[in-house]
Write a structure and sequence with these properties.
The chain is about 85% helix and about 0% strand. By secondary structure, the chain is an all-alpha fold.
Length: about 260
């Protein structure tokens, strides 16, 4: 019993220590975002990598999610003779939840792992120490542009994903389920509000920051050798995915908790 209590206490202390390190890391990184000099070339490179090259995976994910959602909604609502609500359910589900969360998880798997591996390799090969030697602050050069790019790019990815996801639902609704195109579009826009899209974009900005933060943090504190880089990459993806789900609930509660 005594050992069990010790394990619980040790786990709690380790969690608090890790939380403190991540908080200090994020505060320092955010401070460097607003401190000159600004590395515009690094920022542009990260925007292209995060935003442009993530479009295919986000587009495919949201497209088929919208198509499946339309099929599942029709199957469920047909039992209550409420088939005309399929379009409304698809657009609200995609803009509020599926678009931001799925895009965040896909980008976390692609970008979070890439950032952790790149910065972790730089740590292993002493390139980060070399930046210090050259009077270039690693946090300002490596971390700050990635955090800013992640926060900027993910809302645009989600906005594109929302359109593609709703279009996927439209394709299934019109060409598979036999809905009238005009009526389906009218139902899609009837109950959609600006706050629904805004909620998804706010979530996306938070998710983008968390993904970049976890990728940079675990890469920056990577262990030595290939095993350390591999562990940092895995931890970056897992921690970013968990934080996305937690932040999703918190942001949703802030918007609709009342």
């Amino acid at each position: 019993m005594h050992g069990f209590v010790q394990n619980i206490g040790r786990t709690a202390l380790n969690f608090l220590a890790a939380f403190g390190r991540i908080t200090l890391f994020s505060v320092t990184a955010v401070r460097w975002i607003f401190t000159p000099p600004y590395y515009w070339q690094q920022l542009l490179r990260q925007i292209i990598d995060i935003g442009y090259f993530s479009l295919p995976v986000v587009g495919l994910t949201t497209l088929f999610s919208g198509m499946v959602l339309a099929l599942q909604s029709y199957t469920g609502f047909a039992r209550f003779s409420a088939e005309d609500t399929v379009a409304t359910v698809v657009v609200l589900s995609v803009t509020r939840e599926l678009g931001p969360v799925l895009a965040g998880l896909m980008v976390a798997g692609r970008i979070g792992a890439s950032m952790a591996a790149e910065i972790g390799t730089m740590r292993v090969t002493d390139q980060i120490d070399a930046l210090d030697t050259l009077s270039t602050r690693p946090m300002q050069y490596l971390v700050a542009p990635r955090l800013l790019a992640g926060t900027i790019c993910l809302p645009f990815l989600v906005l594109v994903g929302d359109v593609i996801g709703v279009f996927g639902g439209y394709l299934v609704g019109v060409y598979r389920l036999g809905f009238n195109p005009s009526i389906y579009l009218a139902r899609t826009l009837e109950y959609l509000e600006v706050s629904d899209v805004t909620l998804g974009l706010v979530k996306a900005g938070v998710f983008g920051f968390l993904i970049a933060l976890m990728g940079c943090y675990h890469g920056y504190h990577s262990g030595r050798g290939a095993q350390g880089v591999g562990r940092a990459t895995t931890n970056a993806v897992v921690s970013a995915s968990i934080l996305i789900l937690i932040a999703n609930y918190i942001v949703t509660t802030m918007f609709f908790g009342g």
